[in-house]
Each structure stands twice: as structure tokens, then as C-alpha cells.
Amino acid sequence: MSTIHAVAFCAAALPIFGQMAKQGQPFFLEEWLKTNSSAINNTNVTQSTPQSARAIIQAWADLRESLNQKSFSQQHYHSLQTLIHSGNSLYVADPQVKLVISILSASYPSLPSESYPLFLRLLYIWIRKSSKPSLVLVNSSINVILQLFSSQSVTNKSALFFTEGILLLGAFTFVPSTSEETRTQCLNLLCKLLEQDYKLVSLFDDLVPSVLAGMGYALSSCGSIHFIQILDFLFGIWNKEGGPSSSVSHGLMVLHLVEWVLYNCIQSQSFEKISTFSREILESSNARYALFSVAMGAAGALRASNRSISSGLMELRSSAEKRVEIIAHDLISKNVNEVKDRVLLQCISLALARSGDVLSRDSFLLCLASALLTEIFPLRRFYSKVLDVHVNFSNIMVHEVKEHLQSVVFKEAGVITGVFCKQYSQANEGSKTKVENLIWDFCQDVYMSHRQVALMLQGKNEELIQDLEKITEPAFLMVVFFALAVTKQKLAPNVPRDIQLDISVKILISFSCLEYFRRMRLSEYMDTIRAVAGSVQEDHMACVSFVESIPSYGDLTKSHVYSNKMEFTWSKDEMQTSRILFYLRVIPTCAECIPTSVFRKTVAPILFLYMGHPNGKVTRASHSTFVAFISSGKDDDSERVLLKEQLVYYYMQRSLEGYPGVTLFEGMASGVAALVRYLPAGSPSIFYCVHCLVEKASSLCSEWKELNDELEPCKKLLDLLLRLLSLVDIQVLPSLMKLLAQLVVQLPEDGQNMVLNDLYAQVSDSDDVTRKPALVSWVQSLSYLASQATINSAPKQDPQHEKSGTKSWNKGRLVGLNRIFARI
Fold first, then answer.
1. Cα 66 to Cα 333: distance, rounded to the nearest angstrom
2. pLDDT, tens digit, for every residue of 674-683?
3. Closest CA to 503 of 524, 472, 482
4. Cα-Cα-Cα-Cα dihedral of 291, 294, 296, 297, to 10°?
5. Are 676 and 724 contacting, i.e. CB atoms less than 8 angstroms apart?
6. DSSP letter string over 469-501?
7. Superkingdom, according to UniProt (predicted)?
């Protein structure tokens, strides 16, 4: 997920409300419904393409010519399409309306049937854009429509003709100046068409917005009898045989249609209609009505009530919430397997997300949890299909996952998560615990399944892996926001300590499972980590519980059946590595509380394994964990001290075998500094550490010929050894000085000079009165030994020249030494 998308998810704290067109602007209800449902239009006649003014003028001229010639050619049909393709930007004036009415009235045989929907669309654009349409033209248009739908020549109506007819009839009823008689005629025909030809709607999904818009116009202007009839069609058409299918986009259209209709009723103070809607749809249960449409209709009522300050709408709001609650309760009481139940679950989650503040209900919380884990982030279902080796997933799964990424419910995951967290904060303890366990189990399942899928698809279908991770990334954000809400509720002072610790450990484990999907720095994530980690590090049992949840060494290194029969390499498992990295970052914060036996059995093997990981972040965290353990505990804990000393041997071997290369010098240096500081004075482990460092430095410096970048690792080790002169205890110091002296005298002259210069500076700046005298004497001796080693290793030359050169070299070094020791 990109940073922009992640920020958008995080910013979705409150439900958003679609905006209606401003007063005075042309408003096309079907377009508004499509916009708010993210519906895609493929066959509707309103597809718009910019047309030039000249093309539009010519098109009208062609139609006028058609009327004069009483014929309609293919060119005339193309001209009609040119006007329609201008879309809602087209303005139809009264003269053009008269032309359309005349052509439709003439009904000459050459007029093709596919032109009728286009002519109806022109009349619709006119009636919606005209502020004061001529009553004469309105009546003439309605009469033509009535004749068209009763004419024998067009009884074999197309779906598009039916759709445009419903839309236009509804629009005419919405014109305020329309007479009651004319309005009633339109409403009667509209209801008749819906009753007889509703099956035509199911032929194309993108025709549904126009049919619903026609119903919406009619509902806003009709009387009580037609209002009940049209409501019955609106909520019952989905369950009729051959009716349109139940879908989320259809549900959203119903939601916003009801919002628009009821808001109009509120504005016009048609409270009788509001009461009728509440009585027929919200307060009674009708088996003929599709549950998803009723739930979305109730949400539309809530949105409409939110837009008004009237106190008389409380009953409507209460009924709407109660109806959604009943539907949600019935849904969660059964297994959601059928497609219609899944659609209903998605619709309820969107209804709650778009309804503003609703009262807390256990059924709402459980429905939202189920929707998030099965429909909004359907990872388990996708993983199951991929891992089913009997299914050819390559093309089917890629298409299905991409389709989900474009779905409305996925795009509103952030808003739904916000509502979910708010419902959680107000729920009872039983429901809270139930959804908590659902979320924690989800994290474990995603970790296990995504690893298997990634190993299975690696090198086969990278595109599918990437698309799946576009779902897992917002799923991770959902878990983070939920965990933050949990900490605010469960880490409060009034909550029993054992519950706080249990929740803290579960959150840490869940975060470790999804750490791979954390692609940005998130303040909510850091706040949650600080809260739960701070709680865990104060309790021994909680620390043990968290540490023991780490995958075992055997599980981390064993091969997997889904690894394409290739040799499994633990270091290439990125998701597993991310989880271990999470543990290695948290464990140092609670190292004091980890029992010695638990660290030996659980942490140490993994620490040393990942110390050899090629990722620098992982190796650095491994060294930090080692340092944390070495510096933990008390000196009188003999068992812990013994383990520390034992671990040093493995630590030095593992560190130096990967140096240079895998092992980061800074990490190893911090580990060495910690062990010489915290292990008992004179510990054999410290002697071993010094010996290993000198041996490694000797090996790296064996080919020292000149100062260059390739010798940087050797120089760093020498620098570390020099620093140890002031860190190791007095018992170890003589051994260190001896080994270091042996190493220095083997170096070439430029190497000796570099080390001695560093030694001079280090000793002169030292204020350690205990070891400084010994170091001064040692440096003097070392300087002499180094000079002798240089003389003996010099190539044979002319005796006189050799004597002169040696004297010159010794004199220069002697002057430098005298100056340094005088300062010391």
C-alpha cells in the first residue's frame, strides 16, 4: 500500500456523507446514485463524449430534415447518437422538444426501435434542465409517451426503452407544475410497467440506476396510494422471480435513493409519507422484501434524519436503527455461506459506515467484525483457493483478487474500521472479548497462510502475491487501530491486572504476525506498542508468555511442502524474518524479566541463528538482544552468570565467522563491550573473547601491504582491541597487552605507526591512575619491539647506507617517543 493510501485509511475516522447537488443546479438522480455506489456504466445511453457546437447544431438540423422527409436513415440515427453522446452537458430548448415530439408522434415506419430510448433521453434532459418547462410541451410529451407504450408497434420493448420510459415518467411527476390528473396518469403507467416488465431490469445491471431514479422522482411527488405501491416495488423487486440480482452496488443505490426521497419529504414537510415509510418498511417485517434492500433503506432513513435538525424525526431514527439491528442479529445467528448472506453482511457494514453515529449494539459489533474478517479482507478465502492444489488458480484468482481491490466495500475499509472501533468501545465485555479473539485468530491465520502462499507462488505468480498484499496491508492497519482501541479500554486502571497482561501479550503476538505488512511509520502503532510493551516488561509471567510464543528454532529452519520442491532457506522467508525481527526488538525491553532457562531454551538459539542473517536490521537486532541479556540480572545469580559466560563462546564464533560481510562491526563491538563490562572480573569468557579478536585481526592483517580500503575490517578490529585496553579488568589486561603486542610487531611499518600513534593518544588522554603506569611501560616496550622488528625485516642493503638509514629512522621515532612520553 502506498503512503497516500495508508494515510487515507488512517484519516477515515468518521463516516462520509455523499453530497447532493446544490439548489439551482441541474440534478440527475441516476447519476448521483451511480456516483455514490461506484457503479460503472457500460450500456446506458448517457455515456458522454465531448461534442463540438457545430456537430450538435448539425445533428439537430439532420433530425429536422428527417421530419421534413418523413424518413429516418442511418445518418439520422448517427446524428441522434451525437446528441446523446454529449451527455448531461447538452441543453434541449423548447423548439428541439417540439421537434422530438413531432418525430415520435409521426411514428413513420423507417424509425428504428433502437432510436426510441434516445429520443426519450432527450426529453429527460430537457425536463430536468428546464427551470420552468412549458405545460403545453409537458402535456404533449406525456401524451406521446402514453401512446408509445400502448402502441402495438412498440409492444416488443427493449430493456433500454423500458428503463428510459420509467426514468422519464418519474421525472415528469416530479415537475411541480404538472397537473394532478397528468401526474396520476404517469404514476399509473409507471406502476404498470414496473409490474409487467420488471424482468427487463435484470438484463443489464447498469440500467438499475435509471429505474431506481424513476422510482425516486415518483416517490417524492406521488400521493399515499402510489407511494406504497412504488415502495413495494423498490424493496420487493429483488426477490421477484427474474428480478435484478442482490448486490452491494444496488444496496448503496437503495440507501441513497431513500435518503434523497425522505430528505425531500422532510423539506416539503410531507410527514405522512415519512410515517408511511416507517410503518411499511421499518416497523413491519415483510417476507417479500429483500433484507439487503431493507437494511440499506433503513440506513438511508438515518442519513436523511442526520441532515435535518427536526426533533420530530426521532421516531424514524429509532425505527431505522431497530430494523438494522434485527437484520444484523438474525444474520450473525446463522452461518454466512450463501452469496445473498455475504451481500447482506457487506451491506450492513456499509450501512453502518454511512449512517453517522448510531447507538452501540452487540449485533452491530459482531456483524462488523465478521464483515471485516470475511468480506472486506477475505484473505482466508483467497488463501484457501490458492492452496487448493486441485484448482487452477492462475487466472481465476488473479481476476477475483483484482475485482475485490476495486470493490466499494474494500475502498471503504478505513471508514468501516472506524465504526467498528467505536462500536467496540461501547460494547459489553462479553462481545468485546469475542471480537478480540476473532481478530487475534485472524492475525495468526494470515501469518501461517500468507507464508505458505508466498512460498507456493514464488517465481510462478508474483502478480497475485502483490495483489494479495494490497489487501493484507490495510488489514494490518485495521488490526493496529483495533488494538489501539483495545488498549484504551483494557489497559485502564480499573481493569484487573491479569486481563491487562493477557491483552498486552496477545496484541504483541498479533503484531508480530503482521509485522511484514508494516510499510510506514504509524503513530497509532507506536502508541500501542509502547502501551503493551510497557505493561509486559513489568511482569515475569507476561514476559515468559510472550517470549515462549516465538516460533521454535526447528520451525524456523524446517523445509515446507509449499516451497516448490526447492531447498528451503530460512533467511529468504521474508515474512518469518519480519516476525522474528519484531521479537528481537521487543525482547530487550523485558530482558530483566526473562528467566535464564527460558532464554537458554527459546531465545538463544534464534538469536544466534539470525545473527547470520544477510539483512543488517536483523543482525543488529540480534546483537542488541545479546547485549540486553548480558547486561541483565544481578551478579549473585550464578545460573544467569554461567549462561552468560557460556553464550560468549557461541557469540564470538558466530560473530567472527561472518566478519567482515554479514556481521555488522557496530553490533559486534557493542556485544564485546557489554560482555567485558558485565561478566565477572577475570572470567575465562573474556580471555576467550580477547583471544578470538586478536586471532581474527591477525588473520585479516596478514596481507597488509599498504593503507587501503580493503583493510578497513582489520583496522576496525585493531581499534576495538585498543579500546578494550581501557575496558577490560586488571586481571585480563596483561593478557590483552601481550597478545596485542604480538599482533602489532607482525604488522608492516605503516601499520605499526598507525597503531602506536593511536596508543600514544589513548594513553596520554587516560585518567585511569590504576592502569596508566602499566600502559605507559607497555607502550615503551612495544615501541622498541616494533622498531626492532622493522629493522630485522628490512631488506639487505649497502652496510654504510643501511647504518645511515637505520640511525635516521630510529632517531625520528625516538624524537616522537620522547615528545609523547613527556606529555604522558
1. 64
2. 999 999 999 9
3. 482
4. 170
5. yes
6. HHHHHHHHHHHHHHHHHHHHHHSSTTS-HHHHH
7. Eukaryota
